[in-house]
């Protein structure tokens, strides 16, 4: 169990990644607000997040769930949110084969940008549409085994395995002492120095043509 | 004044006096339309258009749409598909969210199809545009206000001449706009600027990219913001974001700096109710006092970016394509060495020194933009 003061509420950071339209926001909304509102759901632009308080072993935890845009062009930005995430859900749509085939890219990117002990779970969403399934459960399991990550199939719509998925992640985080090597408070957002290097390089290169000044 | 900081001065107050009667306003606008007096129409638009009828005439003109653009063009359907069409379909399928209660399902379905056609036509006609999630929000507002052919043309001009920097292959140029925000906040309200010091301005991304269309549920307010953004510098949304932050300064200052996620969450919301005119007034005032060229981070951006080339005059689609092509090449040339160097350890300090020196040089040479117009 992580070493906490009695009145201290630890903050956990969970990140959702995966292709566009696989249901990342729907999973987040189902878990944090127990809502299913497809007619209200719009594209996530950049990064969105919600907070939920949970109790585990009689202790409160503050969960920040970070939802990211699926479009390729936002990846530079969303990657900077990997920092200090204790758990990541990599989501695909079981009815859309292309979102499954993109998984190696997401999983490799995840490996390259996060600590090795971070909790990773592969989630095949839209289990309610089992009849139009394009990826078998076995294929999902194989993929998860190959990258050594957890696996389950879920549905934000029918509220299947959503709570279980998040809560198991939370429990695993709490049981993994190495994820508590540093206080998470105040470190949940990308730090300035994550992009400073890029920015400075840009100043140098673009700065050679400062003729507007 | 830099070329990007469009200068409209003085005349508005004189014209405002003549606008006391609605008839007179209509007359003046009609005359400006027939004279193609874009400067005057821009002034009127910044002050606020009053009806859909006015917007249907004035938005396309301000964007740059010309009569000859309406001549028969080869159908877009026969043009080669654009690389981003699959993404467009995913996003337009999730559009018209805010109207769902007022509209029938059939109507929503038909508008989604129109929106998809609109965006695909824009992309196929200008294949080097890169679609971003959020462009569909801007196009949705255009489609709600204008007829489809006019919305297509207006979207083409806006894509090429207003928001070109956000439609380049990389997201870096977009982020360079967001990075102006902390500098602006520090200049305008040091206390708030310092309070938000550790928070990256990524919370502002949907506001900036979509001209607030992604989050604004009040359609009147949204149209009013488009009145402002269409004829003004592409940085104006950054000033508008600053205004929405500063109008909640006490609330934000009350949130501890040790709770960055709470601050991030609050910053990602719009003030409710949304005091549109006050905020526009503040945004324009800040723009006049601290134009983009005086903000940290402006100097390092390429010359071909809209940030530096923005103008309302002499716009054509083919010139827009040329600028887009140039900006794409300049952006890529700039990012190529950037990516290479970003892997080289130990270089960071050198960059910081260079960036610092450049910033100092910029200050010394004095980049002072002129005013948008007198409020």
From TrEMBL, chain A:
Protein name: Ras-related protein Rab-18
Keywords: GTP-binding, Membrane, Nucleotide-binding
GO MF entries: GTP binding; GTPase activity
Phylogenetic classification of the source organism: Eukaryota, Fungi, Dikarya, Ascomycota, Taphrinomycotina
PANTHER family: RAS-RELATED PROTEIN RAB
GO cellular component labels: endomembrane system
Entry-linked InterPro entries: P-loop_NTPase, Rab, Small_GTP-bd, Small_GTPase
Record's subcellular location: Endomembrane system
CDD domains, A to Z: Rab
Natural source organism: Saitoella complicata (strain BCRC 22490 / CBS 7301 / JCM 7358 / NBRC 10748 / NRRL Y-17804)
KW Membrane (keyword) present: yes
Pfam families per UniProt: Ras (PF00071)
UniProtKB/TrEMBL annotation, chain B:
Domain of life where this protein originates: Eukaryota
Region described as Disordered: spans on this chain: 1-22
Pfam families assigned: RabGAP-TBC
Domain (Rab-GAP TBC) ranges: 49-233
GO molecular function: GTPase activator activity
InterPro entries xrefs: Rab-GAP-TBC_dom (IPR000195), Rab-GAP_TBC_sf (IPR035969), TBC20/Gyp8-like (IPR045913)
Gene Ontology cellular-component annotations: endoplasmic reticulum membrane
Transmembrane spans: 351-369
Alphabetically ordered keywords of this record: GTPase activation, Membrane, Transmembrane, Transmembrane helix
Bias type Basic and acidic residues, positions: 13-22
GO biological process terms, semicolon-separated: endoplasmic reticulum to Golgi vesicle-mediated transport
Protein name: Rab-GAP TBC domain-containing protein
UniProt organism field: Saitoella complicata (strain BCRC 22490 / CBS 7301 / JCM 7358 / NBRC 10748 / NRRL Y-17804)
């Amino acid at each position: 169990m992580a070493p906490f003061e009695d009145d201290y509420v630890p903050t956990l950071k969970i990140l959702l990644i995966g292709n566009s339209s696989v249901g990342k926001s729907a999973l987040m909304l189902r878990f944090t607000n127990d809502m299913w509102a497809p007619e209200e759901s719009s594209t996530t632009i950049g990064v969105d997040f919600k907070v939920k308080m949970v109790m585990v072993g009689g202790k409160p935890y503050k969960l920040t769930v970070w939802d990211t845009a699926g479009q390729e062009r936002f990846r530079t930005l969303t990657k900077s949110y990997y920092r200090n995430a204790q758990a990541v859900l990599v989501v695909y749509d079981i009815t859309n084969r292309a979102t499954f085939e993109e998984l190696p890219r997401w999983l490799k990117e995840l490996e390259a940008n996060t600590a090795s002990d971070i909790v990773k779970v592969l989630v095949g969403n839209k289990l309610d549409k089992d009849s139009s399934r394009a990826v078998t459960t076995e294929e999902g399991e194989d993929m998860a085994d190959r990258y050594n990550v957890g696996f389950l199939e879920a549905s934000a719509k029918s509220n299947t395995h959503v709570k279980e998925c998040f809560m198991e992640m939370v429990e695993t985080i709490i049981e993994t002492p190495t994820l508590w090597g540093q206080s998470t408070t105040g470190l949940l957002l990308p730090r300035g120095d994550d992009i400073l290097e890029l920015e400075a390089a840009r100043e140098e290169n673009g700065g050679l043509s400062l003729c507007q000044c | 004044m830099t070329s990007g900081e469009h200068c409209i001065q003085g005349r508005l107050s004189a014209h405002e006096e003549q606008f006391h009667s609605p008839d007179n306003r209509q007359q003046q606008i009609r005359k400006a339309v027939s004279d193609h007096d874009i400067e005057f129409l821009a002034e009127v638009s910044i002050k606020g258009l009053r009806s859909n009828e006015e917007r249907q005439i004035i938005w396309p003109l301000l964007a740059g749409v010309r009569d000859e653009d309406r001549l028969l063009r080869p159908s877009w359907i026969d043009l080669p598909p654009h690389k981003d069409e699959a993404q467009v379909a995913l996003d337009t399928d999730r559009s018209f969210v805010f109207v769902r209660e007022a509209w029938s399902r059939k109507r929503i379905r038909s508008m989604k199809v129109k929106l998809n056609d609109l965006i695909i036509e824009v992309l196929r006609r200008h294949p080097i545009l890169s679609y971003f999630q959020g462009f569909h929000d801007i196009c949705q507002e255009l489609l709600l206000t204008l007829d489809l052919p006019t919305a297509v043309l207006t979207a083409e001009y806006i894509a090429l001449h207003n928001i070109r920097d956000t439609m380049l292959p990389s997201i870096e140029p977009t982020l360079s706009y967001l990075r102006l925000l902390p500098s602006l906040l520090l200049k305008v309200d040091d206390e708030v600027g310092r309070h938000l010091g550790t928070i990256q301005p990524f919370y502002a991304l949907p506001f900036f990219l979509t001209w607030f269309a992604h989050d604004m549920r009040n359609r009147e307010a949204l149209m009013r913001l488009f009145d402002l953004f269409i004829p003004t510098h592409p940085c104006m949304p950054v000033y508008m974001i600053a205004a929405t932050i500063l109008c909640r300064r006490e609330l934000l200052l009350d949130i501890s700096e040790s709770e960055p996620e709470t601050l991030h969450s609050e910053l990602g919301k719009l003030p409710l109710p949304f005091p549109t005119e006050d905020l526009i007034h503040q945004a324009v005032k800040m723009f006049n006092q601290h134009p983009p060229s005086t903000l940290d981070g402006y100097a390092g951006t390429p010359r071909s970016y809209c940030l530096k080339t923005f103008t309302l005059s002499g716009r054509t689609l083919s010139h827009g394509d040329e600028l887009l092509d140039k900006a794409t090449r300049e952006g890529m040339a700039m990012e190529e060495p950037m990516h290479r160097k970003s892997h080289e350890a130990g270089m960071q300090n050198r960059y910081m020194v260079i960036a610092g020196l450049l910033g100092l040089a910029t200050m010394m040479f004095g980049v002072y933009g002129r005013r948008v117009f007198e409020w």
